[in-house]
Amino acid sequence: MESTMDPIVVQDSVQHAQNGFLALKEMARSLLMWTLTPSHELLIIASVIILLIPVVLHYIVVKATPYTNLPSIVLIGPCNAGKTAFLTLLENNTAATETHTSLVSTSVEFTASSKSAARENHLKKNDVTGEHTKFLIVDTPGHPKLRAVAGDQMISLNPKKAADADSTVKGIVFMVDGAALGEPDVLSPTAEYLYEILMLLQRRAASSKSSRPPPAIPVLIAANKMDLFTALPAAMVKAQLETELGRIRASRSKGLMDTGADNVGVVGEEQDSWLGAYGSNNEKFTFKQMLEFDIEVEVIGGNVIGDGPGVNKWWSWMVNRI
User: Fold this and answer.
1) Could you list the residue ranges that cross the membrane (predicted)?
2) Who has the most CB within 10 Å: 35, 150, 228, 312?
3) Would you give per-residue pLDDT tens digits along the chain (322 residues)?
């Protein structure tokens, strides 16, 4: 026996659905008319929405970004070492044929990819497939009177802020002119500048008052202009700098001892200006002594212009520190 629905029941259901639809339609019409009619309530609601949307979007973006401030690699070194030409090459894939003394710091954003090919070849730096991290390379002036700008860029290296574990500086590239470093008038000021940078890092590492040391900041000494005939090999650049840094260290220590101050004060000042492991008075200075303060120093040769080893090893060193 087939069962059929009562026509009256079906008609009531249809009528009920139509009434519901008409009610929703009327409600939507009333809501639309209300939103189009100026009122204090509407103004308050619109203001709240306008104020909340940027806050919510900012929260989402900050949560999705691993760094509030991008990590950075700082380019430091004396004038005419090739810092600006190096940054120009990385940015445009062509080296600047002529540069001038930088007066202000310049920051350029790059991408560090997880792919080995992109990490080993700067020409593939724009490969953003897979995991990647954005970072900055900051070029600083090399003129002695403008080096305070470099200090501003490395404010997180200040020993008073050494406990800041969120330091955005992930590495320092100290560029030198490998073709002119054999000349005393080039070697001496270059080593003096390097001494100050290493002392800044050393004081930063030694100033931590907690069991948690500040994050390590490695240093790459980029020996540029290896394409020139007069260029010293990277090993000789390292040896020359170590010898000159040792001479500066001994000279500063002797200067403090000759001041005639009380012995306790002299010892304190000497420790504060002694580069490397303190107590190694009879030892020749080497970059290995900086490991006592968790400062890794590496010397790599390369060239920005001309034929030679190029800049890929420098690029690889930088992206592997991000």
Assistant:
1) 42-62
2) 150
3) 445 556 666 566 667 777 777 888 888 887 777 667 777 776 788 788 888 888 888 777 666 655 567 899 999 999 889 999 999 999 888 876 666 677 778 889 998 887 776 677 777 776 666 677 889 999 988 777 766 665 555 555 554 544 444 468 999 999 999 999 999 999 999 999 999 999 999 988 887 666 777 888 999 999 999 999 999 999 999 999 999 999 999 888 776 655 554 544 444 455 567 898 776 566 789 999 999 999 999 999 999 998 889 999 999 999 999 8
CATH number of 70-258+274-320: 3.40.50.300
Sheet holding 132-139, edge to edge: 106-113, 132-139, 72-76, 169-177, 219-224, 297-301
